[in-house]
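Sequence, please.
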């Protein structure tokens, strides 16, 4: 029986075996590199826009529900970002970072194969591919470049270490504590999972650990300031990419406990009201 042909990573000069990766043509390392390159690209592009152009750009994205063909994204960037023109590689990297496997009607579509990278057919296929740009809303206030600048500006006499302890060396977060925190703002809790659902276009239950942690910290900054998610996230790993995790068991377990607590609080309130009523009228 012939052996399965080895598939290597698509990135230039990378010979990593990528045969068992069903989600990307790139190995795990180069997926991360590509994501960073794309975020740097969008950071540069966003800085080329004035405030009015940035608002108009976001409004046009929102009109598409943040799901847009790369060709139309190119037109928006040309219009609002000082006539920016994306290269074929930049388009491919944008697709790799924000890809959607669904068409504009919401139907699953297969990958199109066979066109040469140097052909017009290849470029047309790139322009037709859909990307999901839900994260663009936070780009200017939460960019990789800005985070790096913040790290560079930290004093070397211990401030950097202090900052690291907040996220890596803090107290391990527990499920009990997350339930307590969620109950302080249930609307905020619900908004986290709505955003995650919008990001999980493949509906495979996977999300970047960093992305989920950032959503939680954005919603509950003070409550989570001294806690680390490292050990908690390790309980729900992705077998082929350490930067990803399965969020479904976390969501299911936490929401079940929150629902029970909400019901218990409701029943307690009803009992207390009944006791108060009896004390006043009997």
């Amino acid at each position: 029986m012939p052996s399965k042909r080895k598939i290597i990573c698509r990135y230039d000069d990378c010979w990593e075996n990528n045969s068992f990766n069903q989600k990307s043509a790139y190995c795990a390392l180069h997926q991360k590199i590509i994501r960073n390159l794309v975020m740097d690209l969008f950071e540069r592009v966003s800085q080329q826009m004035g405030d009015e152009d940035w608002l108009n750009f976001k409004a046009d994205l929102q009109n598409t529900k943040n799901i847009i063909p790369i060709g139309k994204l190119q037109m928006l960037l040309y219009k609002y970002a000082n006539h920016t023109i994306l290269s074929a590689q930049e388009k491919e990297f944008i697709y790799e970072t924000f890809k959607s496997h669904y068409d504009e009607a919401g139907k699953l579509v297969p990958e199109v194969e066979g066109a040469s990278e140097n052909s017009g057919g290849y470029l047309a296929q790139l322009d037709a591919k859909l990307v999901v740009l839900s994260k663009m809303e936070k780009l200017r206030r939460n960019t990789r470049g800005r985070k790096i600048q913040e790290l560079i500006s930290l004093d070397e006499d211990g401030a950097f270490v202090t900052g690291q302890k907040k996220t890596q060396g803090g107290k391990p977060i527990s499920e009990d504590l997350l339930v307590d925190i969620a109950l302080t703002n249930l609307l905020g809790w619900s908004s986290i999972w709505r955003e995650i659902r919008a990001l999980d276009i493949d509906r495979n239950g996977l999300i970047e650990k960093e992305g989920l942690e950032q959503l939680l910290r954005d919603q509950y900054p003070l409550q989570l300031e001294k806690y680390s998610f490292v050990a908690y996230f390790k309980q729900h790993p992705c077998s082929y990419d350490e930067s990803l995790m399965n969020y479904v068991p976390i969501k299911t377990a936490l929401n079940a406990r929150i629902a029970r607590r909400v019901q218990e609080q409701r029943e307690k309130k009803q009992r207390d009201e009944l006791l108060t009523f009896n004390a006043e009228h009997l």
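The longest helix spans residues 248-281.
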